[in-house]
């Protein structure tokens, strides 16, 4: 079963608007990671937030983590057409920290 | 962060044949993994590539179908054997220093089987 579940599944916004994506997970975690995948390409690591962190920033990205609710959010501010991609949350499990991915969110940013 | 080179980037193969995908990391890493991403789907872990020993496979994946090698800390291969159209997917390699370190991915191999 999926460890991470994102919502919404698809999001379409206008350039300049903010995009908020949510992820829920089921078991306790050491960290949660967000990735971006442009069409047909590999995954790009965006942010890793540790279980003892509540918020983290990287440029136009802001990630929050609420371990009591087992949820995380990714906020992209002032979106650009180049932000159009699929976004995945993933959590490591097991001794080897293998990642379990959510189903992903398809973000479309209209110019 | 580690840079991961994966090749080939894409291939079209005949059913019944096998293809080996290579993954090279530019630095020594603790963990290497192979994932499959079927069309329109999320990523599913195939196996953890263990250096110098047999890979650890996830449920639903077997060594005869997906043999994996990892001869050293920077290189791994995945072979997709006796391919069928159902094996048409993107195959991705990732690497991590382990612990609370992120995984970094190659660009993937887009495989189509006719």
Sheet-strand content of chain A, in percent, reads: over 45%
The coarse silhouette of chain B is globular
Poorly predicted regions of chain B are: none
Q: What class would the helix/strand composition of chain B place it in? A: mainly beta
Residue ranges of chain A: pLDDT <50 for 5 or more in a row?
none
From the N-terminal CA to the C-terminal CA of chain B, the straight-line distance is 37 Å
- From N to C, what is the helix and strand string of chain B? EEEEEEEEEEE
Backbone CA Rg of chain A: 13 Å
Instruction: Tell me the structural class of chain A.
Output: mainly beta
Average pLDDT number of chain A? 91
Q: For the largest interface in this structure, which chains are involved and how many residues does each contribute? A: A-B, 24 and 28 residues
Number of helices of chain B: 0
Let me know the average pLDDT of chain B.
94
Oligomer: heterodimer
Number of strands of chain A: 11
Main sheet characteristics of chain A? 6 strands, mixed
Q: DSSP strand (E) fraction of chain B?
A: over 45%
Distance between the termini of chain A: 36 Å
What is the 3D form of chain A? globular
Q: TL;DR?
A:
By secondary structure, chain A is an all-beta fold.
Descriptors for this entry?
heterodimer, A: 111 residues, mainly beta, six-stranded mixed β-sheet, five-stranded antiparallel β-sheet, 11 strands, 59% strand, globular, B: 114 residues, seven-stranded mixed β-sheet, four-stranded antiparallel β-sheet, 0% helix
Notes on the protein architecture:
The complex is a heterodimer of chains A (111) and B (114). By secondary structure, chain A is an all-beta fold. Helix content of chain A is 0%, strand content 59%. In chain B, 38% of the residues are buried. Chain B has no helices and 11 strands. Chain B has strands at residues 4-7, 10-13, 19-25, 31-37, 43-49, 56-57, 68-72, 75-80, 89-96, 104-105, 109-113. The radius of gyration of chain B is 13 Å and the shape is globular. The chains are: A mainly beta (111), B mainly beta (114).
